[in-house]
Amino acid sequence: MLTQLAIRDFAIVDTLDLELAGGMTAITGETGAGKSILLGALGLCLGERADAGSVRHGCERADLSARFDIATLPAARRWLEERELPADDCLLRRVVTAGGRSKAWINGQPATVADLKALGEHLVEIHGQHAHQLLLREETHLRLLDDFAGNRSAVNQLGETFRRWQSARRRLRQLTESGDEVQARRQLLRYQVEELDALALGEEELATLEHEQEQLAHAEETLREAQFAAECCDGDEGGVLTLLHQATQHLDPLPGSDRGALAEVLAMLGEARIQIEEAVRELNRFADATELDPERLAWVESRLGEVHRIARKHHVMPEELPALHRRLQAELAGLEGSEHDLEALRAEVEALRDGWRERARTVGEARRQAAGKFGKAVQEQLAFLAMGKARFEVEVEARQSPQPDGMEAVRFLISANPGQPPRPLAKVASGGELSRISLAIQVVAARHSTIPSLVFDEVDVGISGATAEIVGQLLRRLGENGQVMTVTHLPQVAAQAHHHLHIEKRAKRDSTLTRMALLDEAGRVSELARMLGGVNLSDRTLAHAREMLDASQQGAAH
């Protein structure tokens, strides 16, 4: 139940805090006073679309919040708990900036507008002033009958099954139609994968082959140069070691003082001889280990040639061949199993079809059983609304093709006069009759709603006199089991309310503001008198208003 509505800088409202209670609340005011503002603010809190025009002129933003008591709303509590939000309270907040951007919160946590809308479906049900126009559409008839029958969850599941069924059918058709293409692709992939299997190029093999090819190709030259270098160092007559030995022999016998001065040079020559001797040994070892293998070189070069040829064939770099091999193997594996997938997909389509048919049959039976009950309930309300001679029926027909919501088309039929066959609403009902029929249907639908807060926005348009009083009594009865808020221009309806919210527009210097307040008993009499007789209230009008209010409240008590 809606317990509080707070509005800041919205439309022509600067500040408003409303405390709301259960029962029926009438919302009245002169035309243009801003009754729609209240419903607009509530609608934004429930996820309706926002725009910059929502912000009061000259302000930066509009701030709106609605608090609900959800102690008796398990669906709303479950929705909050599933999202790990506090479920002991429910506060929806919406901020709209002058630039048209908006933010939303649920119990203080940031939320999306879609979240507000989803949660709002468990909190408030709004019956708009154009509801009678929606009643001319057959999809509305189907939805109302399903709500009456308690089919909402089953129809949602039916629609989900239908969407899965149709999706599987599309996949099956695509797979079947592409059979020739798949076969051609499978044959190509088999050839390519077999060729790459035969190549069997390892991850690091290319680098190894290139390094080995370079070594083998230059082995003869390398061996020749290494042997020449060794000869230069250790030749019999002109080698470096021979020359170093000769240099040392010439310096070593010098007299003591001269030899001392050259001691460092002699040490360096000795170290050089040792280094050259070690270099010669390494060169000889390298020459002994180096083998000329023209057959191996030919094989390596042939292997590299084959790798590059296949790489060019696939338009990739040689080093990319292993990754290409894996991709083609994976694609081929997928296509190799496509025949099995085709059979599995056929089985899935059949299972989904059968599941949908079973669900649709159950939903259809529930609709046909509920149709008579719904028609009878609306018939009773029409009699209460002075249309006792009218005959209302709910027609359930089989559709020619499956639809997401089942195999039935639902149509509301009415016969306003005795002896005439029932016909669709749009073809027989006058404006006043349609308003009463619409209200009767909405009352029946609301009685079977699990949502305790109902909003009726001028649903009594086209009704007057004694019928208006009966409408008020209907709405009051609905309010006794929950919360009903109704925007009305009819004093007969407003007099039936448990509470009365008055809205008026006031001009203040260069601005216009809307004021809203719950009326006490004296205020209610004055407002009812205004609704009865206009601006200038006579004693007779005030007395009439007092009598109407007393009679309504006493009648309700009985």
Automatic annotation (TrEMBL):
Coiled-coil positions are 262-289
Instruction: Tell me the keywords, alphabetical order.
Output: ATP-binding, Coiled coil, DNA damage, DNA repair, Nucleotide-binding
Highest taxon of the lineage: Bacteria
- A Pfam family matched in the record: SMC_N
Q: Which SUPFAM superfamilies match?
A: P-loop containing nucleoside triphosphate hydrolases
| InterPro entries found in the cross-reference section | DNA_recomb/repair_RecN, P-loop_NTPase, RecF/RecN/SMC_N
Start and end residues of each RecF/RecN/SMC N-terminal domain? 2-507
Would I find Cell inner membrane among this entry's keywords? no
Asked if Transferase is a keyword of the record, the answer is no
Q: Sum up the protein's function in the record's words.
A: May be involved in recombinational repair of damaged DNA.
Annotated NCBIfam families: PRK10869.1 (NF008121), recN (TIGR00634)
Entry's family note: Belongs to the RecN family.
What name goes with this protein? DNA repair protein RecN
Instruction: State the organism named in the record.
Output: Billgrantia sulfidoxydans
The gene designation is recN
